């Protein structure tokens, strides 16, 4: 029963992340104009289509999740590119280690397991950083990276379900 609950929890987390991403993307319009203030924003980047920023984003110490989203995406895109150059797939250790090296606090991070309860490589992983009552949430799987800013959950965490200890 425990394995079934873990699977259900992960599916719920994925569904919530997708719903938040879909809601954020639904707000897009074709008419240029000032962007409305929002508590949720989203971006999507693929490994093969990593955008080339005009200026390298930087960490905004003490800043909000929204202020640090571009930097979060930059660090994660670099992690994916580095792993791909070595014919590997970036995993939880690589993402959290790169985020820590980039200045994010390891105590504010969560990451889902790289291996499923039946011992096979997970199709995708999620990782997060809590910042000022919000969460930077990244997901990587099937060669695609997605991220969003979401509210902190009532549990004080960013991810639902089982996460692994970050002890590396």
Please give the structural blueprint:
Elements: H1 2-26, E1 41-46, H2 65-85, H3 92-101, E2 109-111, E3 124-131, E4 134-141, E5 144-151
Helix pairs in contact: 2-3
List keywords for this structure.
3 helices; 5-stranded antiparallel β-sheet; single chain; alpha+beta; 168 residues
Q: What does this entry look like structurally?
A:
By secondary structure, this protein is α+β, with helices and mostly antiparallel strands. The protein contains 3 helices and 5 strands. It has one domain. 33% of the residues lie in helices and 20% in strands. A 5-stranded antiparallel sheet has the order 1-5-4-3-2, with helices on both faces. Strand 4 and strand 5 (144-151) form a beta hairpin.
Strand content: 15-25%
Calculate the mean pLDDT score and round it: 79
| Widest sheet: strand ordering | 1-5-4-3-2
Order of helices and strands: HEHHEEEE
How many DSSP H or I helices? 3
What number of structural domains do the residues give?
1
Q: What's the alpha carbon Rg, rounded to whole Å?
A: 16 Å
Weakly predicted, low-confidence segments = 1-47
């Amino acid at each position: 029963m425990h394995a079934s609950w873990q699977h259900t929890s992960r599916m719920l987390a994925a569904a919530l992340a997708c719903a938040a991403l879909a809601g954020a993307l639904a707000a897009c319009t074709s008419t240029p104009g000032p962007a409305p203030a929002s508590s949720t924003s989203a971006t999507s980047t693929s490994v093969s289509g990593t955008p080339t920023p005009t200026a390298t984003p930087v960490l905004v110490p003490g800043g909000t999740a929204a202020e640090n989203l571009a930097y979060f995406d930059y660090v994660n895109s670099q992690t994916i590119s580095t792993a791909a150059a070595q014919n590997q797939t970036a995993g939880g250790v690589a993402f959290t280690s790169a985020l820590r090296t980039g200045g994010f606090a390891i105590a504010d991070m969560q990451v889902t397991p790289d291996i499923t309860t039946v011992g096979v490589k997970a199709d995708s992983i999620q990782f997060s950083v809590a910042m000022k009552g919000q969460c930077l949430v990244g997901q990587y799987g099937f060669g695609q990276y997605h991220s969003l800013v979401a509210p902190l959950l009532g549990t004080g965490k960013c991810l639902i379900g089982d996460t692994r200890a970050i002890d590396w």
